[in-house]
């Protein structure tokens, strides 16, 4: 790396793993650096934001963003995907069926200006690789990540990204909006609350006690935080153990 994460406004989470908190909705975008490859996790809320993310990621890695994982079909996580048309794009199975108009309308309700939302919806890029269960992605240089479809929960199509620890670094789990730190987890009309606690149980099984959990919105948390949020969601939605 020629520049540091911090110099570009990113947070280094572990060796070769970082994230930035995007303006507006405080949405996380993650980056995992491989050998001659790089995986971005989520693409930002507009074409322009996707382009900015791509430029920053490529400055950090000195190479191209070769892979993009989309954690779920919400505008603030996917509207920048068209800026990564050359990358291999992954998402949970079925996320390609969510109508672009639905995302556009939700974006406008969420405060994105109408022209920006319409532009992003018009060129919306769908994942070419649809994950049901688990998918191991080899980024080279001994760097493998696991994409796991743990939903439905926050949406019908929730994907998490697990990055095993390397050279003394902790494991990192990109949780999408299954976990939020900066506020209550958002459960919209497309959420499946009855399954949400089970999805977090699965997330904790995969990540374990010592992993760093990166929420879709907010600061990095630990397993105890995720477990507490799981219990709060179970109580909120009346889901028994
Ligand atoms: Zn969301």
Gist?
GO terms for molecular function: hydrolase activity. With 241 residues, the chain is α/β, with parallel strands linked by helices.
Structure description:
Keywords: Hydrolase. The protein has 241 residues and is an alpha/beta fold. The protein has one domain: Metallo-beta-lactamase, Chain A. It is built from six helices and twelve strands. It has helices at 47-61, 75-78, 100-109, 114-122, 196-207, 223-237, and strands spanning 11-14, 17-21, 28-33, 38-41, 67-69, 88-92, 129-131, 134-138, 144-149, 159-163, 172-174, 212-214. It is globular and about 50 Å long. It starts with 10 loop residues before the first strand and ends with a helix.
Q: What structural keywords apply?
A:
single chain, 241 residues, alpha/beta, seven-stranded mixed β-sheet, 12 strands, globular, binds zinc ion, hydrolase, RibonucZ/Hydroxyglut_hydro, NDM-1-like, MBL fold hydrolase, Metallo-B-lactamas
Q: Assign the structural class, choosing from mainly alpha, mainly beta, alpha/beta, alpha+beta, or little secondary structure.
A: alpha/beta
Output the CATH topology.
Answer: Metallo-beta-lactamase, Chain A
Report the CATH superfamily.
Ribonuclease Z/Hydroxyacylglutathione hydrolase-like
Mean pLDDT: 95
Radius of gyration, in angstroms, nearest whole number? 16 Å
Rough outline: globular
Q: Supply the number of structural domains.
A: 1
- Helix tally equals 6
Give the total of beta strands: 12
Bound molecules: zinc ion
Strand order of the largest sheet: 1-2-3-4-5-6-7
CATH structural class: Alpha Beta
Low-pLDDT residue spans:
none
Just name the CATH architecture. 4-Layer Sandwich
* Terminal Cα span: 46 Å
Order of SSEs: EEEEHEHEHHEEEEEHEH
The biggest beta sheet reads: 7 strands, mixed
Query: Which range does the strand content fall in?
Result: 15-25%
Helicity level: 25-40%
């Amino acid at each position: 790396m020629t520049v540091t994460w911090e110099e570009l406004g990113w947070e280094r989470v572990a060796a070769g793993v970082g994230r930035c908190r995007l303006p507006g909705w405080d949405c996380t975008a993650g980056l995992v650096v491989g050998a001659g490859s790089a995986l971005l996790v989520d693409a930002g809320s507009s074409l322009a934001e996707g382009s900015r993310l791509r430029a920053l990621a490529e400055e950090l890695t000195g190479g191209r963003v070769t892979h993009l994982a989309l954690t779920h079909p919400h505008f603030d996580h996917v509207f920048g995907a068209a800026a990564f048309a050359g990358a291999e794009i992954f998402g949970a199975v079925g996320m390609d069926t969510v109508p672009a108009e639905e995302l556009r309308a939700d974006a406008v309700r969420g405060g994105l200006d109408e022209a920006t939302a319409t532009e992003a919806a018009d060129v919306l890029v769908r994942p070419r690789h649809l994950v049901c269960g688990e998918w191991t992605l080899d980024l080279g240089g001994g760097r493998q990540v696991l994409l796991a479809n743990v939903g439905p929960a926050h949406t019908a199509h929730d994907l998490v990204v697990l990055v095993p620890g390397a050279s003394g670094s902790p494991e990192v789990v990109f949780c999408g909006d299954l976990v939020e730190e900066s506020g209550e987890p958002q459960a919209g009309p497309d959420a499946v609350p009855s399954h949400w606690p089970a999805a977090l149980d699965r997330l904790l099984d995969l990540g374990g006690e010592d992993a760093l959990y990166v929420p879709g919105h907010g600061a990095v948390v630990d397993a105890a935080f995720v477990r507490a949020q799981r219990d709060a969601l179970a109580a909120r939605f009346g889901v028994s153990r």
